[in-house]
User: Fold Deferrochelatase from Kutzneria buriramensis.
Amino acid sequence: MTPALSRRRLFSGLGAVGIGGLVAADATAMSASAANDPQIVPFRAANQAGIVTPQQDRLTFAAFDVVTKDRAELVRLLKTWTTAAESMTKGQLVPGGETDLQAPPADTGEADGLKPGNLTVTIGFGPSLFDDRFGLASKKPAALKPLPKLAPENLDPAYTGGDLCIQACADDPQVTFHAVRNLARLGAGTVVLRWMQLGFGRTASTSSAQATPRNLMGFKDGTRNVRAEQTDVLDRCVWIGDETDQPWLRGGSYVVARRIRMYIETWDRDYLADQQNVFGRYKASGAPLGRTDEFDTPDLGSSDIPDNAHIRLASPEHNGGIHLLRRGYSFTDGIDATGNLLGGLFFIAYMKDPKQFVTVQTALAGDALNEYIQHIGSGVFVCPPGVTPGQYWGQGLFT
Ligand SMILES: C=CC1=C(C)c2cc3[nH]c(cc4nc(cc5[nH]c(cc1n2)c(C)c5CCC(=O)O)C(CCC(=O)O)=C4C)c(C)c3C=C
Ligand SMILES: [Fe+2]
Assistant:
């Protein structure tokens, strides 16, 4: 066993120290260097990373159930997860134990040598975490409850609910998978994976510097999304503020995740004019119907945009000023039993209160898009604020 090995350097892009090891002096050099590396998103801040962070291209999302009834064990898990997540976002190994030849390494190793890839790891707590197992009922915010039945949906219990969620986003799919895999492994005996979703391409932009991506229906998606620069909208619609009944949640946010299947073959047979009417935008440019530029404001007073167009029914103008910060991903799980493509949009949105999602989704009951999609999985979680130095994820729950 060589102590140097326990300071192993994971990614080759930063300076001279390679896999061979890192001595104490190098560690300081590394943190200074790492701080300047554009591929590292700071883990400790007032808000959790992975919400307004410029959206990365890859996702691994996981929902977990807690299998212990021991509150101290849950706290231990959150502390361990915090340390491991922080380390992985820096492109470092999950700390501890990697030099013992008689035990499995602490880190599974598949991200060894890869760049940090702007990894963000974001945690959320589901309504079921606040039941009678851990004495957390008094810490439960009134806004956190299972979503009502929302038409049209056909939810698969195998992709619904969860006590905890982890959203890992990065520019490299192996980095996101590694993060969730290692947290699941560290949680063995305390949590079990309930469901998991990989996403391969972002379907939104969360910063003005990002180009708008396209979803699997071929349309630009995220044009009118909330951006990190819109701090007034974030305060009004995304970050939990003084209005909360649970002060420990200030600076947090709620996340709603929906696994939405697209009937891609049917969509691909639809003619272009109808596809455009479904969304209320031109397919090529992304401009609202009747306008010319992608970022032109839709004229919702005009009949160019049909009454049942997606952008009309989802718009803040139609929903009392409600905004959602969307952060979804395209996904595919191959084909279904009939040979049709099984793919769609893994919708993720952050908001101040889940009733914002319920309002918009209720308005979407008459959406022209519903002919081509179905909601088949769902989760709602409250994300605590960011961790400041010395704290662990969700510490406010226990103090
Ligand atoms: C309940 C919220 C929403 C669900 C569910 C949803 C599903 C969904 N959306 C698309 C594609 C597009 N959505 C677009 C805009 C848009 N969508 C929502 C909300 C939900 N979408 C909002 C709030 C908005 C913005 C409305 C506005 O302010 O104009 C667009 C247009 C481009 C854009 O602004 O992002 C597309 C395209 C799919 C494919 C889908 C389910 C599979
Ligand atoms: Fe949408």
The chain has two domains: 1-37, 40-397.
